[in-house]
Amino acid sequence: MRDWNGLKQRYLQDKISIRLGNLASNLARIKSRCQNSANCDMVASLLQESKLFIEWTAKDTEVEIAAELAELQVQLACWQYCWERIWQDEEQRSAFAEQTKIWSEKVLNMSGLLAVN
User: What is the rounded CA–CA span in Å between residue 13 and residue 8?
Assistant: First the structure.
């Protein structure tokens, strides 16, 4: 069992931009791990971790970002609900991977980490 409390304590020490960057990185890892059907449990764990990252971050963000994160969290929950079906079907898994890539890019842009100073 994962130590979610320890992860939460470490995660909350970072600035919002870093937290959002970590969420974007998780989503990018999901996309890359979908290429191998043996990674089902790993991807499922990354989905759960991403939902928690949102829970721990959204309340500390601007309203617009919090709304986007809430939409993403709902999407992650929907994917979890249909997880076995998505993972078993290569076409659905591929579409899921592409959607996580899109969300990863969106969250990375929200983080401001790519902004030129």
Answer: 9
Residues 32 and 54: their CA atoms lie apart, in Å, by 20
pLDDT of residue 3: 81
The C-alpha R_g of the chain, in whole angstroms, comes to 14
Q: What is the DSSP string of 34-49?
A: TTSGGGHHHHHHHHHH
Chain-centroid distance of CA 74 in Å reads 11
Give pLDDT tens digits for 42-97.
999 999 999 999 999 999 999 999 999 999 999 999 999 999 999 999 999 999 99
Give the C-alpha separation, 21 to 18, whole Å: 5
Alpha-helical runs (H) found in the chain: 4-11, 16-33, 40-58, 63-81, 83-88, 90-111
Judge whether 13 and 97 are in contact, CB under 8 Å.
no
